[in-house]
Write a structure and sequence with these properties.
The protein has 421 residues and is mainly alpha-helical. Helices cover 53% and strands 8% of the residues.
């Protein structure tokens, strides 16, 4: 249309770009007050690049390979990215989703991830791509270190289970240590101490923080009344670390509950579970809801899901547990966690934006020395690229910089700002 009907007219080309940008960012599902288009595009890319999404990658040209379809879909995603008015929101969520794929080993292919990084490199800043590259490098280094640690069992001791450690550089990953002081079971804490000794010997002076909130585990469990293949092979549960710590209390030989050694296993009260694990009420209630909804645990309330969770209830293993699948995933993120993650990420985006605006104002004033209120706002809006700076946010940043003694109002004209060296 642009080439043939309008002969590459620059005016029409600019108007078309504006129209596409408005449509992408503001439509029936993307309110003007939110940056939902950026979030949805990041989620779409996550679906394309994650394991278990083969159907999405096959939705391309007939007869094309899955890799060809994936590249075409990623190219289309980058085309949409160019029209986003909040590219910083996309970058923040894309980093989070990529981190989850790498840590949980959910990437469908390394080629697909590298293809997306290459395409983003053409349209995003160098800092963003550099951080993503460091994440990939940490995965390679961690794999080599895990293999080296396992090969030195004569020095650091044998590991009684499959153990895969990923060491992440704090500045490159969108993670921070949890506030929870987890009571780590001895079988796990012993191995963690072994790995810490290995890491201290290899890199002296580095601080190691355990990210229990993103770690995952698999455990095989046998239930007394299981039938068929489950009676012989047991069930394999994919769990969060918090779920693992809770479940191990029901398979221990002794503990804070009652009924250890009986055919039905121990019974533990809610306060006993909290004390034995160190988990707070929010996490404990969420994990117990998952166990009771999946009928792995029975609650004395007789309910299922949220109805089964009570601070006065007791919990026991469901000896009659049955499932059509021998491998059961209980570690999927709950909806409440997804909402909280989105909210926390948007709050982090807002904080980053305030720092970006302040940095832009300081650069402008350092160069110009003195500007009127209107000129400073206009030049700040022009300088900031990843998002559209709101006038209200710029005014707030100006006030903050005055408080920090970077700027001052002119004594003779209150509409003028002076830069303070």
């Amino acid at each position: 249309m642009l080439h043939e009907s309008f002969l590459d007219d620059p005016g029409f080309s600019k108007a078309l770009d504006h129209a596409c940008s408005d449509f992408v960012n503001f439509n029936a599902i993307c309110p003007p007050s939110e940056s939902k288009a950026s979030l949805l595009l990041a989620m779409y890319c996550d679906v394309l690049l994650k394991k278990g999404s083969a159907a999405a990658r096959k939705a391309g040209a007939e007869g094309a390979s899955e890799d060809d379809n994936l590249e075409e879909q990623l190219t289309q995603a980058i085309c949409i990215f160019r029209y986003l008015k909040s590219s910083d929101v996309f970058q923040k969520f894309y980093s989070k989703f990529l981190a989850r794929r790498l840590v949980n080993e959910q990437s469908a292919s390394t080629h697909g991830e590298e293809t997306m990084i290459s395409k983003l490199k053409e349209v995003s800043g160098v800092d963003f791509i550099t951080r993503l590259a460091r994440m990939f490098n940490d995965m390679i280094v961690s794999k080599d270190m895990s293999e080296e640690f396992k090969s030195k069992s004569d020095v650091y001791g044998e590991v009684p289970f499959d153990f895969d450690m990923k060491v992440l550089n704090f500045v490159s990953w969108p993670y921070s240590p949890p506030d929870v002081k987890l009571e780590v079971p001895p079988i796990l804490s012993t191995v963690c101490e072994q790995y810490k000794r290995y890491l201290d010997d290899k890199h002296s002076g580095r601080k190691l923080s355990w990210l229990w909130n993103i770690a995952r585990a698999e455990i095989k469990m046998f239930f007394p009344n299981a039938t068929g293949p489950a009676a012989k092979n047991g069930y394999i549960f994919q769990l969060t670390t918090y779920q693992l710590v809770i479940l191990l209390l029901f398979s221990a030989e002794s503990g804070p509950g009652t009924g250890y050694g009986t055919p039905t296993g121990p019974t533990l009260s809610y306060p006993q579970l909290v004390t034995a694990t160190g988990l707070n009420d929010e996490i404990m209630q969420g994990e117990l809801e998952v166990f009771c909804r999946a009928r792995v645990l029975n609650s004395s309330t007789g309910g299922v899901g949220s109805d089964a969770v009570s601070k006065t209830a007791t919990y026991s293993l469901n000896v009659d547990y049955k499932s059509k699948h021998l491998r059961v995933n209980l570690a999927n993120m709950k909806k409440s966690e997804q909402k909280r993650e989105i909210k926390d990420t948007m709050r982090a985006v807002d904080d980053d934006r305030m720092f970006t605006i302040q940095a832009a104002i300081v650069r402008i004033m350092k160069s110009r020395k003195q500007l009127s209120h209107r000129q400073l706002i206009d030049e700040t809006i022009i300088q900031i690229r990843p998002f559209q700076a709101q006038v209200s946010s710029i005014k707030k940043c100006i006030d903050l910089l005055i408080d920090k003694a970077f700027l001052e109002r002119d004594a003779d004209n209150r509409d003028l700002y002076n830069y303070l060296a």
